[in-house]
Amino acid sequence: MSIMRIQHWQDVASLLVGVWLVLSSFVLGLSGAAVWITIALGLGVMLFAVEGFVIPSYLEEWGEMLLGLALVVAPWSIGYETTSATVSSALSGIVVILLAGWELMTDRDFTAWWNDHWHHRAG
């Protein structure tokens, strides 16, 4: 019996985005705060993705969405020095948000919770 089981391909894709973020600090030659912010957010994305393998739950997607939002906002709030760093961070953030949202919409546990909590109140 395997401890890690891939239930959603989006977790694998998020893991790859996280790996890119960590490596992009060196590939794109980031400097200053951009290096540490990008590495920290990349590691966070990687940890949430791996958590999706170990303890499958829809909750890690909310964390990934927050990290994705931070990736989108970071270049302008921190002031990244290069356009390539800004584009990489913003696009990576958008991809993480889209993957997490897609996974939520296809996760049976989340859709069951959503229907139980929201459709009963409307009726």
UniProtKB/TrEMBL annotation:
Domain named SPW repeat-containing integral membrane: residues: 9-100
Cross-referenced InterPro entries: SPW
Membrane-spanning ranges: 12-30, 36-55, 62-79, 85-105
Transmembrane recorded as keyword: yes
Keyword Nucleotide-binding: no
UniProt keyword annotations, A-Z: Membrane, Transmembrane, Transmembrane helix
Protein name: SPW repeat-containing integral membrane domain-containing protein
Upper lineage: Bacteria, Pseudomonadati, Pseudomonadota, Alphaproteobacteria, Hyphomicrobiales
